[in-house]
From TrEMBL:
SUPFAM superfamilies: Nucleotide cyclase, PYP-like sensor domain (PAS domain). It is found in: Cell inner membrane. GO terms for cellular component: plasma membrane. It comes from Pseudomonas batumici. This is diguanylate cyclase. One of its GO terms (biological process) is negative regulation of bacterial-type flagellum-dependent cell motility. PANTHER family: DIGUANYLATE CYCLASE DGCM-RELATED, REGULATORY COMPONENTS OF SENSORY TRANSDUCTION SYSTEM. Its EC number is 2.7.7.65. It catalyses: 2 GTP = 3',3'-c-di-GMP + 2 diphosphate.
Amino acid sequence: MNDPLDLNEFHWLLTIVQSIDVGVVVLDRDYRVQVWNTFMENRSGVQPKDANSRSFFSLFPEVDREWFSRKVESVATLGTPAFTIWEQRPYLVRFKNYQPITGQEDFMYQNTTLLPLRSTNSEISHICLVIYDVTDVATNRHQLQAANAKLQKLSSTDRLTGLYNRGHWEESLKVAYARNQRYGNATSLVMFDIDHFKRVNDTYGHQAGDKVIERVAEVVREHVRDSDVAGRYGGEEFGVVLSDTDKAGGRFFAERLRKAIEGLEVLHEGQGIRFTISLGVADLSRPSISHADLIAWADHALYASKKGGRNRVTVYE
């Protein structure tokens, strides 16, 4: 740099590097720090004089040394930049998050860029690491995902019971039916409703009726597997799609559920309410046209249970 303009440019560049709101670190090929800007000083608490010539890995022991070294060597060999984004790797170096708006995050989410720096002889003897604070972006994305998940849950679940609503439950049954038709895996359906539920409402009131329905849903959740789909079909009627289960397995599940409900007592305003359920079981071991056939068969079996005296399980034959 022979003229004042070059010196000015150099001074300006240093000022920019120190004042920009990103981390700038220059490393030699032995990963020793050569440049350490104000962003890095403020976030790490390490002053430039203490960082200078220190190993990057000694300053940040949390860095995956093997992965980072491989990344740097690729940049040095190919002479092209490399990038990381927070979705793949939340951070390179662990800095605390001090942003007031996004204070719920414990650490700073980061995107990073690795740039090859050529010497005057065109050799790549240094690598520039740039660290961007993207905590705002990550937090907003997480909040949006949480909101979408909540909306999805609200749209697919019954508000009173927390079980799937009829629309989602029936769509799940359609999927199970299609899988059965294609692969032949056993699928059964249990339909049941609460015996004399109108009497519960008339005797104890609708709040007591809601409490009974909620308690039934809790028992159903305790008995189903993760692969099963339990839902409220309407009013006091429920349905459970049992995957990889034939009608014998369906009967076994239904009988366990029946006994569990029979042993319940729901307390409401100091009064104990006891009740039973009637259940119908059907599977896809016979020819069918659509998922609606399975519903009709299970419903037919449920009607037979009610006609036969209630508090019993009937399998559609």
